[in-house]
Amino acid sequence: MARSTSVKKGLRGPLFFSFSKPIILITFKNAQNSRLLCSNFAPRYSWVVFFFVLVITASLSLGSSYSEWSKQTKDFRTNAELLEVLLNNRIKNAVDMLHSFVGLINGSEHIEAKEFEVFADIVIAREDSIVGVSLNFAVSGDDIPRFERETQKSYPNNVFQVKERGIDGALLPVSPRSQHIVVTFLSPLKGNEAALGYDVYSQSDRRFALDQAISAKQVYPTAPIKMVQNSDGVLLFLPFFHNTTGAFLGVATAAIGLESLTDTIFQRGLLPNTDLYLVDLHEGVHEPILIAKSESANLPLNELLARYKADDFNHAVCLDIMVGAKKWRLFQISESYFFKQPWIVQFILVCGFLVTGLFGWFLLIVGSHAAEVESKVQLRTKDLRLANESLKASELEQSKAKEEEANRAKSEFLANMSHEIRTPLNGVIGCLSLLMSTKLEAEQAHLAKLSQHSAESLLDIINDILDLSKIEMGNLVLEKHAFELQDLIEEVTHLFVLKAEEKGIVLNSPATPIPELSLIGDRLRLKQVLVNLDG
Fold this sequence. Notes:
- The chain crosses the membrane at residues 45-67, 234-258, 343-366.
- It is built from twelve helices and 15 strands.
- The protein has helices at 20-27, 31-40, 45-107, 113-126, 144-152, 204-216, 258-269, 301-309, 343-436, 442-473, 485-502, 523-534, and strands at 3-6, 130-139, 163-165, 171-173, 180-187, 220-221, 225-226, 232-241, 248-257, 275-280, 289-293, 315-323, 326-334, 481-484, 518-521.
């Protein structure tokens, strides 16, 4: 039996992740602590753990959603297959009942109306979807009078006449044709007397079903019709033939009430958020016909077929229902991604919400506390650093002050010592000047002059020490006076003559005479430079 299934795959539907509130609170803390959280959130690895839990929760949600979707897809098809079996069994029961009537005909030389009625009552009692049954014998137009006389014997209280419907729908005596298929025996007869003697072959839609049944020698249903009782149903035609010649004798007919055939099955087997349609596609011969549908089904037939072909349903299954040589299609569709309440998915989502939410609150509390502690530590560290810098600056200032004090003391000491030394040295220089003013021999005068120059040089050294003190105190001032360069050179040379002789060194003034050159500057400082170079 051919079957086709269409289930649209994919994961739809909202999945509400439970991390939104903790993230918002962690990200948008109040103004007092937002800077603290943004700059000092700790421990930082907690974020990794949080997002790991987040990913696990999302994965479990998606996994459980897909698992539930797969399970419901399987249940959806299983339910459709169960309905298919139930419908096929109900129809098979009806077909088997028709075969029992054919067996009755083949086993009896002559059938009486009473015999048929008893047998039919037993059949109808066994299958509640069968509203009525009949034996419709084939009669040629020429044989109608004889057929009416013979059949009338079975209905002494009724007038048996072969008839058909006119243009206005009224029952009229039939116009003889090559073949008529006449309702001969009918059960239940009460309330259906008008159908007795009716030529079903005279009606075009039933003629098509009869021709198909005779051609296939199998059961063939009509399209849905309004039966005599004004209820929806179909007629099942089962042709029977002569055992020896194989000539067509007539059809056993069962009137099937669609309400009793499908409603019980549809109500019992209908899933939540699901619709059922039973369709006769006619396989391209005629337009598709809706046989039956569930109470909530409201799609037009063309839209149903188009959407099923386009795979536009979340769940859709199409199965074949065989009615003899005819094939109906059972469509079970659902617009919902989960046609049943997905309790497992909701349970996992709730658990994920609780776990992720609690963990988010935990991170918020622990992170805030850790951030506050870290901020205090950084604040204390900053205070210590500032204190250390202040201490170092204070120590540096104290060291500088002590050094300046020491330099000042040294300078004062040198200045005092220089003054103390200069006093006797000035006396020596003065005595040498007095000595040189007396009558001395040339050698004595020369030695006295050298002594005077040496004493003056020593005085210059002492002055240099005073100048050093001035330099350290930033008070040294260069003087500007005119002096002769030649005199300065000769004076420096005379200072080192004796020392050069002691070392066996010949000290000569420049070979060429120094031109008489008058300079303006600090004669003492230049002399100090020359003495330092020669010394």
